[in-house]
Amino acid sequence: MSTVEDREVGAQRPVPIAAPRYRAGTGRVPVALLVPALVGLAFLVLPLLGLIVRAPWSTLLQRLTEPGILTALRLTLETATLATVVSVALGVPLAWLLARVEFPGRRVVRALVTVPLVLPPVVGGVALLLVLGRKGLLGSWLDTTFGVTLPFTTTGVVLAEAFVAMPFLIIAVEGALRGADTRYEEAAATLGAGRWTTFRRVTIPLVAPGIAAGAVLCWARALGEFGATITFAGNFPGVTQTMPLAVYQTLEGGDLDGAIVLSLILLVVSVTILASLRDKWITSP
Amino acid sequence: MNDTLSGTGEALLDAHLVVERDRFRLDATLSIAPGEVVALLGPNGAGKTTALRALAGLLPLTAGHIRLGGEILDDPARRTWVPPERRHVGVVFQDYLLFPHLSALDNVAFGPRSYGMNRLESRQRAAAWLRRVGLSDKARAKPRHLSGGQAQRVALARALAVDPPLLLLDEPLAALDAGTRMDTRAELHRHLGEHPGATLLVTHDPLDALVLADRLVVIENGQIVQEGDAATVTAQPRTDYVARLVGLNLYRGLAHDRTVRIGPDFSLSVAEAAEGDVFVAFPPTAVALHAREPEGSPRNVWPATIDTIQRHGDNLRVQISGPVTAAADITPAAASQLRLASGQQVWAAVKAVETRIYPAASRRSMPTPPPDATPAPSSGGTNRPTLAARQAREPWQP
Q1: Does the domain spanning B2-229+368-392 belong to CATH 3.40.50.300?
Q2: Tens of pLDDT along A212-240?
Q3: Which of A187, A221, B229, B284 is the most exposed place for a label (fewest CB within 10 A)?
Q4: In this predicted structure, what is the pLDDT of residue B334?
Q5: Which of A184, A190, A193 sits opposite B91 (nearest CB)?
């Protein structure tokens, strides 16, 4: 969840005009702000340090080569990426609709979109099961008509992750669209571009940084998804067991060291990928 | 567009713009002939931009109509409305709005591409337009690497690249600094002279209007308060605002060092040295009138005859003729002291430091003839693009 802050704080970003750095008078930071700030920092960082300190470094290499770990890791990355692709494909147009088209009930739709944000993921999983489950409203029809079963499959994992993560993307992209200068779109219209051409050739490039930020946020959320996944897709190694689920199961099985190793891997992989993406995207606005 | 070629002299744009919003009502009738440049002048909030947006299709009319070359673009009574992307109306926006993610070339190619040209053709066309505005070497540059003047020229090329029968310019020079402005204005003047369609220039700068336009239309509070050619509007301002707005004496002449020859036997001394074809401008407040020939300081002094005296604000505007016609603003006290009356002989004086000078670099003469004296566009001959050039620009026209 620290991804967006990371992006914004990216002060190394090349700025065309060197902005003067304002020095707050040294030693003038009020204690009432400084103390809670430092406590907050410690609260966020210490657990991660604990993970590193307690890691079974001596047996780490041996544990890393255990076959289950790689499978779970690959599954996690694949499903999170697919969930992000689904979210971008559906979420960007939805964000555009919310930001650019006036229609009755727009406020209601916007509120509905954000519901999965506040909904406990487990509840989301139950809801998905009720609609897309084998006996669900849509699920039974899918099952009898196409023979497609979604729950307890890898596709189910992707759906559960997209359900939970897509609102993050929609909110980020809608914000970017609202912040973008709509006069560029008017200029495109006077040059003969219809709404679709304008969207494709002007709007998308203009809000690309917003979409990238939203996608990263969405991907990070999908990577750590647990509640909806385990409810809707279950916890089958190799099929639906993603890293968070594996961590949980290992911990439940009493293997603390194993859980730590899995957690470390998840931590390292996600931080590395986010950091490299950040460098790539921030350079060209 | 055929009107442009046949040059019937009829209005290419015929519009009655009525837009009602909140407490504002725009009600203005505009008609522009092919090849004609009309300046829409007015203070902030007068409705200039509203008029421009209505013409571009970015704002629907409440009533009235817009007809361009016989096609109805907007007519609420007939429930007709053509969206902006099908109007073929070129717009140069105030801060240009060049797409920041596209190169100068791709910005200019955007219009042709949208109107159905393929990638190669549209790029060739864009390259030709960049060459015309003298920016071939900047084709690959992103807008943020262009100077203000260059961005303005790219914006102009982008708007003209779709061969719009109607070109709209929204304060095209407002974003430029004074130095760039002068050159860009002269350049813009040349391109507008070559544009065969109708041109509407929205501005609050009288100098831009006087230099660039054939005819001025002044609006205040959504209403047209005056229209006519520069000379008429300057000579007979109908409202205070107009008087202040177009309060400029403007001449064209041949400069050498600090002297500009304006007529066969009339020259003005100016503050800045220049060479060649230039405009000289000074405000009516800079003109002093004397009963006898004044002596002393290096001034421009000439004998003149008073034509008309009109009240404007706290001052009087005196129209004088002689080797050149000019407007002078003087206080009522000075007027009574001089016992000014029509037909009276006076001496007019202008300090060199009160003059402004800038290159003309164009064929158009100032002040411009009244609109009914404007030659039909096809007879404009050399001013117009050649037929070959026009045909090359034709292919995707409807």
Answers
A1: yes
A2: 989 998 999 999 999 999 999 999 998 99
A3: B229
A4: 82
A5: A190
